[in-house]
């Protein structure tokens, strides 16, 4: 609802922001369901080539699905760095600014070798349009339909041919990226920046159980001291 009202305000439908003075409700994110490495390998190849590309961008670079839909060859700024500059807006279905960012702002994220190879393979096979790898099947001048990924995901789950963790949603690919970083000691401040969270609190509340200094580990250490 917030995204819809903000887009309406930016399009000039409202003279003043309808969210002015509105305090959003506090909520605690549900526990993220994350696929294992072997599950990810199966899931990423269960759909079409474009599904594989998006899955790799989300799990390897931490992109949102709208950001992955706007993948562009020109945004590879180094062999190991991808610059996220835009996303496919779910309301307007056009390229737009990043979530929680002003127009023109961007995020630089790690670009694993495998993801870079997937991007280059896809570009060689299907070509690009102004650098974009994905576009509307009926009109190359239009952005990639945001709903495609949901449709493909439902088909993959419905087929029941691959091992998908119970409760996993599409964002499980993004969760995989976060868990991979945090469980290997990458600072949560870096992970929050790469994922484009509005606040580090969001990252902490969702993924704190994956950090090396987790509550569970602290409890065991304290128990050992107290028992002694």
Highlighted features:
228 residues, two-stranded antiparallel ribbon, hpI Integrase, Chain A, three-stranded antiparallel sheet, mainly alpha, 10 helices
Q: SSE layout and pairings?
A:
Blueprint lengths: L1 H9 L26 H8 L4 H13 L3 H4 L7 E3 L2 E4 L2 E2 L6 E2 L10 E4 L2 H14 L21 H12 L12 H12 L4 H8 L4 H8 L7 H13 L1
Antiparallel strand pairs: 1-2, 2-5, 3-4
Helix pairs in contact: 3-5, 3-7, 8-9
Provide a descriptive summary of the structure in words:
With 228 residues, the chain is mainly α. The protein has a single domain, classed as Orthogonal Bundle (hpI Integrase, Chain A), CATH 1.10.443. 44% of the residues lie in helices and 7% in strands. The protein is built from ten helices and five strands; from the N terminus they run ααααβββββαααααα. The strands form two sheets. It has a three-stranded antiparallel β-sheet. Helix 3 packs antiparallel against helix 5, helix 3 runs parallel beside helix 7 and helix 8 crosses helix 9. The longest helix is centred in the middle third of the chain and has 14 residues. The model has no long low-confidence stretch (mean pLDDT 87).
